[in-house]
Design goal:
Order of helices and strands: HHEEHHHH
Structural class: mainly alpha
Strand order of the largest sheet: 1-2
Strand content: under 5%
Oligomer: single chain
Number of strands: 2
Radius of gyration: 20 Å
Shape: elongated
Length: 150
Amino acid sequence: MTGGQLMAAAERKLGAFWSMTRSQVYRELPALAEAGYVKLGKPGPRSSQPYSITPAGKRVFLRWLAEPPGRDAVRNPVALRVAFGSQHTSAQLRDLYNTATEYHNDALAVARDAAKESKKDGDDFGAAALEFAVSYHKAALAWLKAAPAK
């Protein structure tokens, strides 16, 4: 797959619960190739560069999967602003909550659809990971409803 294809596939499978950028993907591919974990294929249209995983890359990936995952890093910009809610006007808080509610409603719909699609495709593990995103957005919406206003 090319970097763009990898990004699109990762966004479909992981985007509901893991953030990534195109620049990260394009930055890592040459480093992975240099380490021998992926190899370049024949250039495609518009000089696109397809990559494929090597046996060494598969081994490293499986080893990584077996490692302890580490701790979650919670960084929520809305919660950060609410922590300083006394510094906001009522209108600012209302706008903050409305914008966040709209985002979480939209993201919830996307995550639900993606989870259903994964389940339909027989990917129970992918569906389970996407259900995490569904639960997260539901929890965020419940929290927003209960968040203090002035």
